[in-house]
Amino acid sequence: MNDTLSKLKTYLGIPEDKTDFDGVLKLIIDNTELQLKVKLGLFDDFAQVPYELSYIPLQVEVKRFNRLKNEGMTSFTQEGESITFNDNDFDEFASDIDDWKKNHGHGVLMTMDPYRKRGV
């Protein structure tokens, strides 16, 4: 997490020693990674975002930080300036996510025996 926090702060131009935003940045990091894991079908508690998609969380985290205090808005206009937000922060990565799922057997229906003990 510290490496991720450090990369995010660097990307946002926040000095490493400035900790004012660390709490909200950690929350953004946790939520973004969890949401990507759900999109990838990685429901194991110990699952990690695959290396080949590790660029996605950082990009989404930056978007989410920059949108703070504008949550829920789809557009904003002030003095002739207009800003429009995506409905889904992962939309631009949808094809990469779909390709990864196809190449890693996700998207195929899998069943499990509810009576089988874990690790057996």
From TrEMBL:
InterPro entries linked: Phage_gp6-like_head-tail
Name of the featured protein: Phage head-tail connector protein
Organism: Limosilactobacillus vaginalis
Lineage: Bacteria, Bacillati, Bacillota, Bacilli, Lactobacillales
